[in-house]
Amino acid sequence: MYTLRRLGPEDREEIKNVFVSVFTKEPWCDDWSDREQLDLYIRDLTGQGYSLTYGLYDDADELIGISLGYIKHWYSGTEYIINELCIRTDRQGAGAGTFFIREIEKAIRAIGLKQIFLLTDSNVPAYEFYRKNGFVESKTNVAFSKSV
Known about the structure:
The protein is of the alpha+beta class.
């Protein structure tokens, strides 16, 4: 049905294709038309020594999901910080995302990681997806930003 694979910088083009196909559409509508900025972003997420990137492939060996993040050593144990996670829009709603999360959990547990941490907006479908899959909303963490 599906296969989880660890990805690296050599998979950047395939990763970018999935990333753009999801995040330039509703509900995100991100403008990734600056291909150089996109390339730098994906390089940042996949090309560091602590990067941890997974791909979900279907039976036809086509990449349909990506998880881009990094390993963080923390006092309570080593974590997988997910910066971006998505399933191709045309493949959502059929269980691929839940399968992907479960396989990521198994893979990170096997390398000694203790927790997954991620941020999402509360007004997008991903919010309910994460809750449905056992993620607990932190009541004490707050995201801040400031334009300079």
